[in-house]
Each structure stands twice: as structure tokens, then as C-alpha cells.
Amino acid sequence: MFPTRTPLAVLLSLAGVTACAKGGDSGATTDTAAVASAAAPQMAAAPNVVNVTATNYKFDAPDQIPSGMTTIHLVDDGSEAHHVQLVKLTDGKTTTDLAAALKKPGPLPSWAVTVGGPNTPRPGGGIAEATLALEPGNYAMLCFIPSPDGVPHFAKGMMRPLTVTAASAPMAPEPTADITVKLVDYDFQFSTPVTTGRHTLSLQTAATQPHEMFIVRLPAGKTVKDFAAWTEKMQGPPPGEPLGGATFINPGGTNYVTMDFTPGEYGLICFVPDAKDGKPHFLHGMMKQFTVS
User: Fold this and answer.
1) 40-49, 58-67, 96-105 — which is least confidently predicted?
2) How far apart are CA 90 and CA 87, in angstroms?
3) Which candidate, 19, 11, 21, places its Cα nearest to that of 48?
4) What is the 8-class DSSP label of residue 180?
5) d(Cα 12, Cα 117) in Å, to the nearest integer?
6) What's the pLDDT band for 106 if we cut at 50, 70, 90?
7) Which pTM was predicted?
């Protein structure tokens, strides 16, 4: 949400019942524990959960996490809007290199891969989550959103390194999504309409450049265009409540977002600057309003 340049979210307890049955005249015993264990359904592991707290202008987060399917749980305890943008750093690059690259106009270099993360919840205690697969390697966690003075939060210190180590356990499976959303140039394409209730959305960038999905709940009489216009100056109260979504996802990438939808009006916006002209994608038409009933 609100980027200023081209960019670049359970330990299972299995109880086994063991029994020992005595055989016939031979006196032999049969241990049925193995049989019971083999017959019991095997529950799949859940994604790792990483808790992140955002304030003005800092992330409270782990320095190191295991690889695999990961849910980033973001709490915005700041007075300004914040999100989590994860960038995978390849070719031995560091957050220092990324900070230097962000000072230059144009797209980020190929060694900085935007993989997503939870988009913006409401400030002052709002929560957002995004689930994605993280490979081992070095990452940066940053916030692209600018303050009202126009300075992006990463330039105020809201960037930190994150090391993802190789996990010893098998990776948890992908969440089961009931709605697929294709992020294309320049649209959000839903496999099925959103209805009242809890849904898991699979957000997939099917384009040649990154895209994001910022979700906002709109009050009566306001439109998604009103909210997009408000972000240009951010003066006065926002005409909507940010609910999260997923930050910039590189082509071919996927994030999963699970949310409870209540009846009302919602808006979707992509703020990613275009690779050709630098204008945010919503100015190319990448915003959508829909009704949940």
C-alpha cells in the first residue's frame, strides 16, 4: 500500500492408543500400537506462525525463522498505517545493498525479489495475516508506506534483515483456498464472488511485473476511488477501514489471505508503480469495488 517507487506472511499433538493382546495357546503377544498408529489418520502440519508488531517506525520481529509455509501475523500498534513487505535478497546482497538500491529511480535490481506479506490493517491495533512459502536465504522486512510528509517508512528506519534457515521438518502444505484471485495487468480476477463468511483467498500474480492486493472496507456513500484519492495526501480521516491483503508479489508468486467478510462494500487497490511509466497501478485501472451480501 502507498509505495513511492517500483519495488521491488502448530505443533500437532497426536495421541496414540496402545494396547497389548495376548495370543492363543502359544502365549505369544501382539503389540497393536503399531497397527493403531498406522491406521490413525495423519494430520498435516500447519504453517509456521511469525508474530510481527509494527510501530512508528520499527518492526518488532524475530531475526531468524525456519523455512517453509509461513503465516506472518502483523499487529499495527502505530499511529500510522504499516505493512510487511518481504524481499528475498539473492546474490549475497544485504539490506544495506537494498537501501542503496531504493535511493535510485526505476525498478529494483533482479537480486531483490518481492515475495509478499500482510498488507495494511488499521493503525492502533489492527491485525492482518498472509501465508506464503519461504525458501532458505536472506530477506529484508520493510514498509513502503509513506508518512504524510511523503517520506517512506523504510527511509525512517523501518527496514530490518530476516534470515530464513533450512527447516528440519517437511514443509506444511499450502492452505486450502476456496477463492482464487489472479493479479494481472491491471485487474483482480476472482474465480468466484466473495460471499458473507470466512474465506481463504489464493492471491496469484499472473503478470510480468509485481502486483499487490490492498483490501479496504468502505462506509456508506464512499467508493474505492475516494480511498485511492485520499492516499495521495492522507489528510483527514480515511474514507474506509484497511483490512489487510498481500503486499507486492513477484510474477509467479502466491500469498494466501484468510478473512471474515461481513455484508457491505469493499474495495481492492494495487499501489505498485508500473514498470513502464512509474504510475501506481490503480491509475491504470487496477482497483475494484464489490458488494458482499
Assistant:
1) 40-49
2) 10
3) 11
4) E
5) 25
6) confident
7) 0.85
